Amino acid sequence: MGFTPEALLFAVFSVSSVIAALGVVVIRDPVKAALSLIACFFSISCLFVLQSAELLAVLEILVYAGAIMVLFVFVIMLVENRDEAIVNPALGQRLGVPLKLAAVALVAFALLNGVRRAGLSTPEDLPTDFGSVSSVGHEFFDNFLFHFEVTSVLLLVGIVGAVVISKRRKPQT
Amino acid sequence: MSISLPALEPLLPGLLLVGVAILLLMYEVFAGQADRTYAAHLAVVGLGLSMFLSLKAVGTPRALLFGTDLANAPLIVDDFARVASALVAAAGLVAALLSPSYAKNAGHDHGEYYGLILFAVVGMMIMSMAGDLMTFFLGLETMSIAVYALTGLRAHDPRSTEAALKYFLMGAFATGFLLFGIALVYGATASVSLATLATFKAGSPLLTLGIALILIGFAFKVAAVPFHMWAPDVYEGAPTPVTGFMAVGVKAAAFIALLRLVHSGLGVSAQTDSTWIPILSALAVLTILVGNVLALVQQNVKRMLAYSSVSHAGYLLIGVVAAARGEASAGSAIIFYLTSYTFMTLGAFGVLTFLERKEGGPESERYGAFAGIGFRHPALGMAMSLFMVALAGMPPTGGFFGKLYLFTAAIRAEETWLALVGIAGSLISVYYYLRVIVAFYMREVPEPGPTPTATRSAQLTLGVALAAFFVLQLGLFPAPLLALTKSAMLSLGL
Amino acid sequence: MDVWLPYAWDVVRLGGMLAILLGLAGPLTWAERRQSAMIQDRIGPNRAAIKIGNKEWRAFGLLHPLADVIKLLTKEDTVNIRADRFLYNLAPFISLVPALVTFAVIPFGPDVTINGVAYPLQVARLDAGILYMFAVSSLAVFGVSLAGYASASKLAMMGGLRAAAQMISYEVAMGLSIMGLVLYYGTLEPYAMVRAQGELLFGFLPAWGVFVQPLAFILFFTAATAENKRIPFDLAEGESEIIGYFVEYSGMKFGMFYMAEYIEVIVVAGTLTTLFFGGWQIPYLMDHGFVFPWGGGLDLSHAAVTVLRIGAFMGKLLFFCWFQLMLRWTLPRFRYDQVMSLGWRRLLPISLANLVVTAAVVLWLEA
Predict the structure, then answer these.
(1) Count H helices, E strands: chain C?
(2) Residue A124: exposure state from Cβ atoms within 10 A (0-12, 13-18, ≥19)
C-alpha cells in the first residue's frame, strides 16, 4: 500500500483514538475521562468513514457519543463531588500495572498476527453499495432477522429491569 | 427471506413465555394494589406448558430456524436444545412457585418480577439453541440483565442493592471479555457460526486468544475460581428464590451453551490445540478446592450455599474437560448433573424461603438461627436433610448419580486424577452440608428464643415438595432422565 | 484545472453554507429585538449609528449586531476562579460547532448542471444524512452541560442540568417523529427526500412532508424548539430566574453561545423547510418549467429554474426563522415538570403511534 491521503488520515485517527482511549484510563477527573472517551468514539467514527462504513460512523456518534455518553456525563455531573477524584489507586493496583501492560501486549500481538494472516480485502473488492443504509438494512432483515428481533426482547428486558429497580412504589397494604 | 408462522413452531416454548411475560407486564398497568399471586400462577402455567411442549418434541428431527443449514442458522432446535429448554423452564417454574409469599414479605410483589423470570428463562433457552456466537451472546444478555434486575428487587435492603450492583458490574465486565473474545474469533475466522468454527484449524493466536476470552466470560457466569468473587455477596443479597433461580438457571444455561460450544468450534480447537485441556483442568481443580474450603468456614447458610454452588461449577467443569477430550458420555452426565442440581438447590433455597423472617437481616441466615427447626417443622427438616444429602452426593438421591456419571466420564476420558479431586471435594463438602442438618436437629432450641415465623403458602409448599420429589425420583429411577440426556447428546452428533 | 474544480466547488459550497449561517445569525439577533419591540409596543434598538459627516446612519438599528460583536470581542474575558478552565474554555466551542455543521446535509438548491457536470448545492450528500443531522445535533448537549458544570456556579449548574435533561428527553421524540417521513419517502438522504417532495398527491397537492405527515410536523417542530431551548422551553436559560448555563461567561465566549442559539434557529428552519416544506421545491415547478395540474405551463431555462428554486429555499428558510422568533414573543414559559411530562408522556407516545400507523399505511400502499 503506497502513501495516500487515506493512509495519512487513517494513521492520524488511529493514533488519536489510541491516545483518547489511554486518556480514559489515565485521566483522574471523571468528566474529562468521559470526554476523552467521546474523543475516542469520534476517532473511531472517522476510521469507519475511511472504511466506507458511513452508516456505522453516524450511528457510532448518534448512539455512543450522543446518547450514552450524554447520560454518563449527566450522571457524573449530578453525583460527583468536585473536590475528590474517583480513582484512588492503591499499592496493589499499581503493582498490577506491569501485568496489565503484559496483557495488552499479548492482545496487541495476537491482533497484529491475525491481521497479518487474514489477508484483508482491498476497497476495490467491496460492492458499490457497501455500508449504505439499504445494504445494512437488508443484512438486518434478511440474514440477521432473528438477532434483530431478539435484540428487541433484550432491550425490553433492560427497560423493564431498570424501571422495576428504580421505580418508587407506594407500600402495599 | 420470509418466515412463515408455521416455521416458527419449534420456537413455541420460547414464544409462549415471551407472550406470557408481555401479558404480565401489560396487565401490571391495571393491576393496582392487587395481590400478585395470579402472576405467579400464570408464570407457572406458562413455564409448565413450555416445558411440556419442549419435552413432547424430543425425538422429532432437528429444526433449523432463520437459516437453511448449520452454517447460517442462528437457531438450532434439536433434542439437546429441547431437553435444555425443559430443564431451564423447570428451574423457572420451581423458582416462581417459591416466590409469592417471599415477594409479599420483602415488598417486591410485582407482576414484573415474574415477567423478568420468564424473560430470563427465554434467554437461557436461546443460549441452548444458539447456532452462532451472536445468538448465544444475545441469549446470555437477555438472561443476565433479567437476573441483575431480579437481584436488586429488595430495594429497601442495602445488601440487595449491593448485590445487584456487584453482580451487574461483574457481569458487565464478563460480558466485555466475552464480546471481545467473540470479536477476535470473528476476526480470525470471518464467521461466528459454530459449525463454521468447527472446520477452522486451530493455531491462530487470534483464535486462541478469542476462545480464551470467551472462556473467561463463561467462568464469570458460572462463578468458577478465580472469577467467583461476586458469588457470595450476590447470593446473600438477592431475594432467596432469586438466589435459587440464579444458582441453577444461570449455571445450567452457561454449561449447556459451553457444551454446545465444546462439541463444535471449541472442541475441535481443544483437541488440536493442547493448551485448553490443562487450563480447563486447572480451572476445575481450583474451583472445587477453593469453593469447598471456603464453604467450610462460612457462618451464613446462604453464603455457604454460594460457595457450594461454586464448587458444583467445579465438578461440572470436570465434565467439560472430559467432553473436550471427546468423551461422549460426559455431555449426558453434565445434563443429568445439572438437572439433579437444579432440584436440590432450588429445594434448599425453598426451605430457606420458608424460614425467612420478615425483618430479614444476616442474623436470620446463620446456622444458629436454624436451631431446632427439625423438631418444630418436621416436614421442613426432612426436606432440608434430603437436599443436603443430595448436595453432598450421597445415595439414594439424584446428587449421587449425578456425581457418579460425571466422575465415571472423567475416568473414561483418562482424567482419573480429576475425578479423584472431585471425590475429595465431595468428601469435604459432606462436612458443611451435614452441619446444616446438625443445626436443624442437634442444637438446643433457644428458649424462649425468636421463633422463626415460617412464611407459608401453598405454592411454596408445592415448590419444595416438587423439588424433593424429583431429587428422590432421580436417585431411585435415574434411567428415564439418562435416556433423555443420551438422546440430547445424540442430536449433537455423538 | 479540471482536477481542482471539484475541490474548488467544495470550498465554494462550504463557504456558501457558512455565509448563510453566519450572515443570517447577526441580522436574526436584530430581528428578534426589533420584532419583540414591535410586539411589546416599544421602539427597540435604534441607537447604534455611523456618523458620516454630519449625517447619522442608523439603518433601523441594523448596526446593533455589529456593535455587539465589537463589544463582545473587546470585553474582558472573566473566568470564575473556581472554574475548571479547560472545560470552561472548551464548552462554547462544543456548543457552536455542532450547530454549524448540522447544516452540511441540507440542500439549498437543486443540482446545478454546467457542461453536463452536476454540481450539488449541498455540502455533503450522505446516504444517512438525516441520521447525521441527529447525530451531530445530539452533541450540542455536551457544550451546554459542560458549560454549566465547569462554571462552578450553582445557577449555571442548574441551567446545565436542566438543559441536558430537556435535550435528552426531546431528542427521542424528535427522532421518532421524523421516521414516518423516512418510511414514506423511503430514504434517509435529504436531497432525495426533497426530490420526492416534488411529486404531486392526488394530482394537485405537492407531496410535501407537512401534507404527508401533518402530525409529525407539529411533533417535530415542538421537539426541535425544546431541543433549541427557546421559549416556551427556555427553562435552561429562564432569564428572569436562573440566567442559565452561560451565566458566568462573558466576552466572545458568551457571544459563541449566543451565536449558537441563532444558528440553531436557522438550522431548525432549514430542517423544517427540507423535510416538511419541500426544500427548494416550488409547487408545479418541474426541472424544465411550470406544469400546472389544470393544464398549461411555462417553460423556463435551467438557470431560471435553479435561481427560482434557490430563492424558494431561502424564502422558506427566512419564513421559518421569523416564525420561530414570533413564537418566542407570543408564548409564556412552561413549568419544568410540564416540560418533562409533555416530552415523555405526550410527544413520545404520540410520535410512536404516528410511526406505527405510518408503517402500516406504507405497507398497505405497497401491497
Answers:
(1) 13, 9
(2) exposed
- How many other CB atoms are found less than 10 A from the CB of residue B229? 13
Residue of B nearest to A141 (CA): B1
In terms of C-beta density within 10 A (0-12 exposed, 13-18 middle, 19 or more buried), how is residue B117 classed?
Answer: buried
Supply the pLDDT for residue B271: 56
Q: How many CB atoms lie within 10 A of CB B32?
A: 7
The CATH topology of domain A1-82 is Four Helix Bundle (Hemerythrin (Met), subunit A) (1.20.120)
d(CA A155, CA A165): 15
Residue B64, SS3? strand
Does A79 reach chain B within 8 Å, measured CB to CB? no
pTM for the model:
0.89
Contact (Cβ atoms closer than 8 angstroms) between residue B225 and residue B283 = yes
Per domain, the residue ranges of chain A are: 1-82, 132-173
Helix ranges, B57-110 (H): 79-106
Nearest Cα to C217, choosing from C195, C192, C191, C197?
Answer: C197
- pLDDT per 10-residue tile (average), chain C, 367 residues: 68 84 87 88 84 81 85 87 88 90 88 81 85 89 88 86 87 90 90 88 85 92 88 79 82 88 92 91 85 82 88 93 89 88 91 94 88
State ipTM: 0.90
b/e burial code for range B208-227 (CB count within 10 A of at least 16 → b): bbbbbbbbbbbbbbbbbbeb
* Residues of chain A positioned with their CB less than 8 A from the CB of B8: none
Sequence spans of domains, chain C: 5-366
What are the strands, taking DSSP E only, across C178-288? 200-201, 205-206, 285-286
Q: What Å distances lie between residue B329 and A130, B248, B340, B405, CA to CA? A: 47, 22, 17, 8
Nearest chain C residue to A58, by CA: C132
Query: Which of A31, A59, A69 shows the shortest C-beta gap to C149?
Result: A31
Residue identified by cell 452561560 is C246
Q: Which three cell numbers stand for residue B339?
A: 438437572
Min distance C127 CA to chain A CA atoms (Å): 6
* Burial letters A129-167, b for 16+ CB under 10 A, else e: eebbbeebeeeeeeebbbbeebbebbebbbebbeebbee
What would the pLDDT profile of B242-257 be if each residue is shown by its tens digit? Answer: 999 999 999 999 999 9
DSSP letter at C250 equals: -
For residue A77, CA distances in Å to A72, A163, C150, C163 come to 9, 22, 10, 13
Taking the CA of residue A110 and the nearest CA in chain C, the distance in Å comes to: 34
Q: Which residues share a beta bridge with C200?
A: C206
Produce one character per residue of C69-97: b if its CB has 16 or more CB atoms within 10 Å, e if not. Answer: eeebeeeeeebbeebbeebbebbbebbbb
Half-sphere exposure of C324 (CA within 13 A, CB side): 30
Query: Can you point out the beta strands (E) in chain C?
Result: 50-52, 55-57, 112-114, 117-119, 200-201, 205-206, 285-286, 289-291, 297-299
Beta carbons within 10 angstroms of residue C54's beta carbon: 5
Domain ranges of chain B: 9-491
CA distance C84 to C67: 30
CA distance B306 to B163: 13
Strand residues in B229-268 grouped as ranges (E)? none
Q: Are C189 and C129 in contact (CB under 8 A)?
A: yes
Q: Label residue A125 left, alpha or beta by phi (over 0 means left) and psi (-120 to 50 means alpha).
A: alpha
Cβ-Cβ contacts under 8 Å, B126 against chain A? 150
Q: Is the peptide bond before B6 cis (omega within 30 degrees of 0)?
A: no
Counting every residue written for chain C, the total comes to: 367
Residues of chain B contacting A107 with CB distance shorter than 8 Å: 209
Rounded-to-integer distance, Cα B123 and Cα B135, Å: 10
Which of B390, B213, B224 minimizes the C-alpha distance to B315? B224
